[in-house]
Each structure stands twice: as structure tokens, then as C-alpha cells.
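Lab notebook, design round three. We kept the backbone fixed and only want residue identities now. Task for the bench partner: fill in a sequence for the structure below.
Input C-alpha cells:
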């Protein structure tokens, strides 16, 4: 794929995803969805800053909202990068599978390439899930103090980030059996469970705030 996913139009991404091409898959789409969630959180803040209700907030809260906006911008950019990185990880694994295995040397090289690609294919969606969690961590104050007319957008931001988090972790889970290093595999599995648990809790917190304002 010569053209990066991040440089495609929405229509192009949808058409490519709907095709028989094996990538982009769930990992890239999870990163994209989380990036949209981050952008929605920023939209709520953009509609908040400078308004009378915002000016009436405590300076500490104003500063917190400014910090969350900056963090969401950083996360959005990284998630956009991960859209392509996840596809690159899949391609690396497929390339390793195609390596020759006629001689003992070729077999050893292929085995090492597969081991490296398996870890990479697991680590990329795990980072995506972590970034999704970080998006969620930004959202409670956005929902609580953001423009009340955009509170449902804060809710959608949380729901998309949470869905993207579990989606990314599904890609971690399916790649774990290919990771031969038991220590790396067990650590990733344990960390995945903790990330999803926290993501669920924060999403629930945000949605409670959202529904309380409707």
C-alpha cells in the first residue's frame, strides 16, 4: 500500500476496509475510531473555551480543561499514526510467513522474523488500547464542565474510545499465542485486562455525567 491510510479520504478508507484486502483491519480501525473520539472531546472544549460558563469556572478547573485539550490533541495525532502502524505490523508478519525455509539458516531467519513480527503485532494494538484509555481519562472533566449543549458529544467520545479500546485488545489477544516469550506474553495479557477494566469504569463515569445533564 503506497498511500498511507491517514492520507486517504473517508470514502477511500471505507472502500478499502470493505474490500478483500486483509488490511486495514480491526487494529487500524480501532485506532481511527479512538482518534475520532479524541477529536470529539476537543470539539466539546472548543465550544466551551471563551464562553460565559467557562469564564465563571475556577481557574484551576479552567487550567485542567486546557491541559485536557492539549493531551487530547497529542493523543489524536498518535492514534492517527497508529492507524498506519497497525497495518504495517500486520504486513511485517505476513512478509515473515513468506520467507524461504529450505535451509537451516533460512528456517532460523524465518523463525526469528516471525517471533519479532508477532511481538510487534501484539505491541501496536496494546499501545492503541493504552492511548484509548488515556483519551477516556481526559473526558470526565470535559463532560462535567464542558458546554452543556455538547454534552452528548462528550458521551459519544467516551463510547467510541471505550469501544476502540476493547477492539484493540481483541487484536492483542489474537496475537498473544504467536508470542513465544512467556514473560512478554503473560505481562501483555495481564496488562490488557487492567486496561479494559479501567476503560470500562471511566466510560461508565462519563456516561453517568452525560445522562445526569439530559
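Proposed sequence:
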Amino acid at each position: 500500500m503506497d498511500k498511507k491510510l491517514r492520507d486517504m479520504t473517508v470514502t477511500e478508507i471505507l472502500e478499502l476496509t470493505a474490500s478483500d484486502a486483509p488490511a486495514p483491519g480491526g487494529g487500524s480501525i480501532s485506532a481511527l475510531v479512538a482518534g475520532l473520539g479524541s477529536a470529539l472531546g476537543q470539539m466539546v472544549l472548543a465550544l466551551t473555551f471563551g464562553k460565559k460558563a467557562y469564564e465563571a469556572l475556577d481557574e484551576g478547573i479552567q487550567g485542567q480543561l486546557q491541559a485536557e485539550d492539549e493531551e487530547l490533541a497529542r493523543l489524536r495525532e498518535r492514534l492517527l499514526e497508529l492507524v498506519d502502524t497497525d497495518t504495517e505490523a500486520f504486513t511485517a508478519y505476513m512478509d515473515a510467513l513468506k520467507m524461504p525455509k529450505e535451509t537451516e539458516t533460512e528456517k532460523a531467519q524465518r523463525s526469528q522474523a516471525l517471533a519479532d513480527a508477532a511481538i510487534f503485532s501484539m505491541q501496536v494494538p496494546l499501545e492503541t488500547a493504552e492511548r484509548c484509555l488515556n483519551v477516556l481519562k481526559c473526558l470526565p472533566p470535559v463532560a462535567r464542565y464542558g458546554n452543556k449543549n455538547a454534552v452528548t458529544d462528550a458521551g459519544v467520545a467516551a463510547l467510541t474510545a471505550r469501544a476502540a479500546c476493547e477492539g484493540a485488545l481483541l487484536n492483542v489477544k489474537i496475537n498473544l499465542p504467536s508470542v513465544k516469550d512467556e514473560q512478554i506474553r503473560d505481562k501483555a495479557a495481564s496488562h490488557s485486562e487492567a486496561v479494559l477494566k479501567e476503560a470500562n469504569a471511566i466510560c461508565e463515569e462519563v456516561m453517568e455525567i452525560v445522562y445526569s445533564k439530559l
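Keep this in mind before ordering anything: Helices lie at 10-18, 26-46, 52-55, 59-97, 104-145, 151-175, 182-212.
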